[in-house]
Amino acid sequence: MNNQNNSFFGRIDWITIALWLALCIIGLFNIHAAVFNPEHPGLFNMETNYGKQSIYIFTAIIIGFSILIIDQRFFISAAPIIYFIVVLLLITVLIVGRNVGGNQAWIPIGSFRLQPSEFAKLATCLLLAVYLNSQSSKTPNMQSLLIGCCIVLFPVFLVMLQPDTGSALAFFSLIFVFYREGYVSTKFMVFGGLAIVLFVLALLVPNEWILIISLTLIATISIYLNRQKRKHIINISVLFLASIIYVLSVDFVYENVLQSHQRNRIDIILGKMDDPRGQGYNLNQSKIAIGSGQLFGKGYLQGTQTKYNFVPEQSTDFIFCTIGEEWGFVGSVTLIGIYIFLLLRIINIAERQRTTFARVYAYGVASILFFHFFINIGMTIGIVPVIGIPLPFISYGGSSLWSFTILLFLLLRFDSARKGINQN
Q1: Cα(378)–Cα(208) distance, integer angstroms
Q2: Could you state, in order of their start, the residue ranges of all structural domains in the chain?
């Protein structure tokens, strides 16, 4: 039994690989349905996106299993080099990149388009894990947090220059890594969540003075209840003043920092704007497509919203619409269940690691995948603004599929090394 567990095949987490492969296959069939061409019906026709995706999946399998047989120490030692190369690619795309949909995010290589921002998430997770592992013997401190934040924010800055807001926001999900390692407190996470709520309320409430008066009443009641605790009164007062300044700055940030199409998308989500033929067209058609699937869906290749191209970007950002329309509520919940199972599996892998490096990297993988999963599905059903990011392993595209595959298989490689050590 020990020999079997200590072998290459015994140390690999095959359940996670099975989940990954299932998602890739689901993605291939739904890309086929999303852009089905009767003149090229074959699933592996290279003149179509679904034919190309089959090649990307085959290549991803080769890449994934190649990673599993390479010594994990190579990836650890190469982390700074990988990060440096990706940074160079992010700079290169600003110079020679191809502009698609207003974003200069792709480097044309023949008929293939490489998107460096997808690989930047991988490189950032890897280098961040290496750095925090080097600090593992020390108590979490502000200096380590600042350097760690710089590792994350530098590629964010370059991605924002493209500008690709969706990809840039994905990096901020790594806050969960800092929280798990003790660099960020629970209070900070709670205040961060409250800041988001306050931002939304400031946009929804017609007069900001209504919100300010409400905050004043809450602060007054809190100070009265803690009137005998001087320290609490000071903290409440500081928090109250910070909240007032924050509320008063929301309009300025909203009008001067966000671009017009981003403001329109937020207004549509918040119900402040109804533009079904303009900015709200994608979301409106997405809801129609998903809702029309009802319980069991219309059947494979039977989606009318999909077939007649009512939903833009059907095979990429809005691929979930095809799933909802053709496979219905049952199919959608099944897909979500697979994702949740995969995320729980990754967190379980993270918690059983014996090194800070492997644990940090695993939480980085979980954070990035969760962000993409939640935001992509959320924007198709109208609970978050449309920011244009792929659904991992499902959406069409070689860059996203390969980067997510490398991200996941590196984790499996580090986990297999842990199992090998345990058997010695």
Answers
A1: 28
A2: 2-184+276-423, 193-257
